[in-house]
């Protein structure tokens, strides 16, 4: 059974013409075609701002963009107007995203701009290293070479196609590639599913987790922010894009022990929030479990525990149909309380920092649930997601999850104290193992509590499906020890818990 949530509340894409694709192209290194001066000036300003607004700051602006007009069809605030930082499609860069085995729903695509030469052939632009050259390319590209790594699989066989703009009225000129045409090609090449009764719309991201566009996002007219031209410029400027079938960003695990350093926004007080650079370590690929040391300061940990203590009560659970009438203490013996962040600058800062860490908007979060485990107290292995098949007699839960379309996507678990004996978080199915029982703590991945550390584990995989291997529990705490921790549950859609 899943732990209780903090609060319970009760279009398909338009088709376009089939893209004209081919694998034929000429070698890179040809001279630039003629450039539009006016557009280059505009793009120079945009690119300069893009260099000032780094990815986590863009994420923070998106999180706090109350004055931004958001389309009714999408719960997300689009990528701000500055263009993403380019990540060239090199082997070393791809190594940060590709896996030795397929990862369902997580796709990596290299995007290389091309132009129609005087010989009637497509030519790759030369590699660029300054913004002025990028402006010329974004003004003049009329085709792109796409190298797709479906399911982020580093197989030797990859799919390469060229997507061209439609022929223009002038001989030897093409019209710009539309986002609609690009989207249709992605459906075909990656086997993407359309949004449905149990499927969230997919999303397209930069390699730093900044969302560029989603399946159902509206496209504005003209050449401004949110237009087809802006979207395609953002995609080409990125170099490598990541398409996630489930719609929400998740950090690719790559392999056990993989280390990734990312930039983290510090939205209010840098002294409280700590360093802007953090390192994510992959502890497990299935389930996907990531570890971040020093995410919380010691003062923050102490503050959260002290604030929670007066309202602690013995924890409840959301009972499955088969368990109705049983006591929660059969599985869970900890104490807990929920803390809203409104009016609390420390908790509010951590909420925004958590959104920056996960690259999932803050309005997907629940209130933080603070936990206290004394000697022998534990929580037997369970899932954080709600399987609709197990709640058929619970209309409130079924309405909450919209019969399976909405669900808990990820858990950011905060360790507020060190624990010398026991208190590990256990994942008994990690590495393909099978649990001996839901109470067993003898095998599987075990994470030792460490003050200030957080782990992220994903209840849904990249395709948006429930991941049974995300089964996890809290092992009993040893004598003379007390474990303080906290859950920050993140859903796959906005839920209205935090504002």
From TrEMBL:
* Entry-linked Gene3D superfamilies: q2cbj1_9rhob like domain (2.60.120.620)
Q: Which ranges carry the Fe2OG dioxygenase domain?
A: 364-492
Residues crossing the lipid bilayer are 36-54
Q: Which Pfam families match?
A: 2OG-FeII_Oxy_3
Which keywords describe this protein according to UniProt?
Dioxygenase, Iron, Membrane, Metal-binding, Oxidoreductase, Transmembrane, Transmembrane helix
- One of the record's GO molecular function terms: metal ion binding
> Per its UniProt record, what InterPro entries does this chain match?
Oxoglu/Fe-dep_dioxygenase_dom, P4HA-like, Pro_4_hyd_alph, Pro_4_hyd_alph_FE2OG_OXY
Give cofactor(s), names only.
Answer: L-ascorbate
Q: Where is this region: Disordered?
A: 1-31
For bias type Basic residues, the affected ranges are 1-11
SMART domains referenced in this protein's UniProt entry, alphabetically: P4Hc
Signal peptide coordinates:
none
Q: What name does the UniProt record give this protein?
A: Fe2OG dioxygenase domain-containing protein
